[in-house]
Every structure is written in structure tokens, then in C-alpha cells.
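This section describes the prediction task in plain terms. A model, or a person checking by hand, is given the sequence of a single protein chain and must write out its three-dimensional structure as a string of C-alpha cells. No templates, partner chains or ligands are provided. The sample shown here is typical of the held-out split.
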Amino acid sequence: MTLLKRFPTFLFAFILLFTTSANAADTLVMPADTTLIVLRHADRYEEDLNARGIARAAALPGALAGMAIDAIYSPDLKRNLDTAAPLAAERGLTVTTRATNNVARTMFAQSPGKTIVWVGNKGNINAIWDDIGAQDPPPLAYGDLFIIRPDASGNPVVTRKTYGVVAGN
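The expected answer:
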């Protein structure tokens, strides 16, 4: 009888252990010497950047001054591409558009050991955060600029910055 009383507790613990192990196995390990810079597209009105967004996008190159950038990725959305354009122009890079499914895996496979920028949207930034197992809240506010580097074990270490017009996000 005692075993039957404990069965629900045992079952719950087993399910928790199994799902935790499965989720941990699904977490991407960042390649060594890779830096991932993640930001949400700049401020917008409907589908286009508004005046504040245009100013914020223009401030992005200055916010990343002194950092080597090897690749810039974005979904194929005008507001994202417009946000990335000033940085790409200053660095002489082309913004590479990517589908948003498995984007972290794709970027890491194509640019291991590089410094890469993702100009995303709330949904795909949340997905990246889940994929890499980052514990901090993701950069979802306009002007958030998060720099992620792996520690010795490949776990993400997040440095939080902001750029552009910060007041009144």
C-alpha cells in the first residue's frame, strides 16, 4: 500500500528527470571563440521603422565600434533589414537573410568562431534564447543589444548593453 501511495510522486519525479534531460540534450553549445550579438529590430510604426527607429539604426555602428563583425544575419523583413543596413554599410558586409527556424544552429554552423549579429524579432529571439539555454531574459526591448560568448563549457555568458535613443523605449 505504501508503494501505491508513493507512485504518483515517483512518476512525477521520473517525468521531471526525463524531460529535464531531454531539454538539456537539445540545448546548443556555442562554438568556441564565437560571439553572438542579438538585438531586436529598431522602433517601428506598422511594418516600417519610424523616426526613432531610423535614428536608432543609425546609432548601431557606433554601439559596436571596436568590435570585429564577421557576419550579419536577419529574417527577410524590411524593418530588420533597415535596422541592419547602417552597420552593414559601415562594415562593408552584406546582410544575409535566414529563415527563423533553427536559426541559432544555422548561424553557428556557418560562422563558427566568428562574431555574428542577429537582428531579429521577439519570436525568433526567444527561440534563440531557448536554443542556447541562456538564463537571462532575452533582448526584446528596442535598443537592447546583448553580446553572448561561451564560457569554457560552452554555456552562454550574456553582456547586456543598450544603444540609440534609450529614454522612452
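For orientation: The longest helix spans residues 2-26.
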